[in-house]
Design a protein that fits this description.
Order of helices and strands: HH
Number of helices: 2
Radius of gyration: 17 Å
Largest sheet: none
Low-confidence stretches: none
Mean pLDDT: 78
Strand content: under 5%
Number of strands: 0
Shape: elongated
Distance between the termini: 21 Å
């Protein structure tokens, strides 16, 4: 259980640091597209920020998947 908690917290901290670095680097850019979400649109955001958000969400989802599967053997599924 402690291993799973450490893996989950590690991925959350890593994604948070990635977002902080991304936010610092994404300021004062000229190209700011909007995302069309179906029911509305977002504020104009730099395209690098949008790619970085997708990367950070991938880090969180991958880390949480590893945390859920940590310590299991293949025989547990049967």
């Amino acid at each position: 259980m402690l291993l799973r908690l450490r893996l989950l917290l590690g991925s959350l901290v890593g994604a948070s640091l990635l977002l902080v670095a991304l936010s610092l680097g994404a300021q004062n850019l000229g190209d700011r597209p909007r995302l069309q979400l179906g029911i509305g649109s977002t504020a104009p955001l730099p395209s690098g920020f949008l790619v970085g958000i997708a990367l950070a969400l991938g880090v969180v989802s991958g880390g949480s998947a590893v945390a859920l599967l940590a310590g299991r053997s293949p025989d547990d599924d049967a």
